[in-house]
Amino acid sequence: MHNFRRIGVLTSGGDAPGMNAVIRSVTRYALSHGVEVFGIYEGYKGLMSGNMKLFDERDVSNIINRGGTILYSARSEEFRTEEGLQKAIKTCRDNAIDGIVAIGGDGTFRGATDLTARGLPCIGIPGTIDNDITATEYTIGCDTAMNTTIEMVDRLRDTCESHARCNVVEVMGRHSGYIGLYAGVAVGASAILIPEFRFEEDKIIEKLVKSKEYGKRNLIVLISEGLGNYGEGLSKRIEEKTGIETRFARLAHVVRGGSPTLRDRVIASEMGVEAVKLLLSGKSNRVVCMRDSHICDEGITYALTLDRMFKGKLSPEELDAYSDDEVKKMRDYCAFKRAEMERLYKINMDISK
């Protein structure tokens, strides 16, 4: 075990239910192994300014059930600069912080990589409702967000049934359609529109008309925010072309809040412990992942490259650092993830009415 005296824990980027469970897990596991923990407020912004507190057991009591993050979050352009990074490093040196656990998404991990490159060991934990970190099959907060989406759409369905309406519902997910896809299947949506798959609007509208003719009174179209402002215009076109009374609903940030589900609390607790274990074993620049329902870890640089490959943002030069076998493995994994999404997407097309 490496001689760590103190570590810091922070949350960055968008908040996600379950982040508090991670903070609790990191703090209590570290304390139980004789390592002190600084709770760093407002992410990397707070790390630069020294906005933090030395935590004890009481600071993380009764937070596992709370949504959001008790450490808050903030974005910082200054942290992207060398001057900002050096401010963060100085804070850690002045306060004898030997390592950082950073909870968030891809932007959070890039910050962790920058700090590691400057001599401060960091471990990342995926905390984002979007479930859009390719290296892991699950990110903390996603399960709660999907369950909140289901509850909200089920309520909309009640009033759709009463008035024989169609509701076009936009859900969060940034550029990822994961929430839209899984929640859409779960609520029995007539159509799911997400960035990952092409669709023909006329065929969707034709399907809605047929469903109405079959006697269906409630019609739900679930659309991902990754398609821009498409949903509001679609709802108007559905009503104009079909005569079906149609309403548009944007669930927005309500999906981020609320008490985390059992799955988010348990996985958050597991990942928090694993992050501290990685630091104490001398590892850094790693991200805690879940693969085949088991907790594991992956290099952050590799994870970011894999993520860019999956999202079609990777330049050929970025693969120069990897062997042919590694590149093939990455491409195969991306193909597997796309195939899994496509399989579920087709299932919904086959069973929805």
Features:
2 domains, Rossmann fold, 353 residues, 46% helix, 11 helices, alpha/beta
What does this structure look like?
This protein is of the alpha/beta class and 353 residues long. It folds into two domains: 6-141 and 260-299, Rossmann fold (3-Layer(aba) Sandwich); 143-257, Rossmann fold (3-Layer(aba) Sandwich), CATH 3.40.50.460. It is built from eleven helices and eleven strands. The protein has a seven-stranded mixed beta sheet, sandwiched between helices. Strands 7-8-6-9 form a four-stranded parallel beta sheet, with helices on both faces. Helix 4 packs antiparallel against helix 10 (300-310), helix 5 packs across helix 6 and helix 6 (178-187) packs parallel to helix 11. The radius of gyration is 22 Å and the shape is elongated. The N and C termini lie far apart (58 Å). The model has no long low-confidence stretch (mean pLDDT 95).
Summarize the structure.
The protein has helices at 19-32, 43-49, 82-94, 106-117, 142-163, 178-187, 201-213, 230-242, 262-280, 300-310, 324-351, and strands spanning 6-11, 36-40, 52-55, 99-104, 122-126, 166-171, 191-193, 219-224, 246-250, 286-291, 294-299. It is α/β, with parallel strands linked by helices and 353 residues long. The protein is elongated, with a radius of gyration of 22 Å.
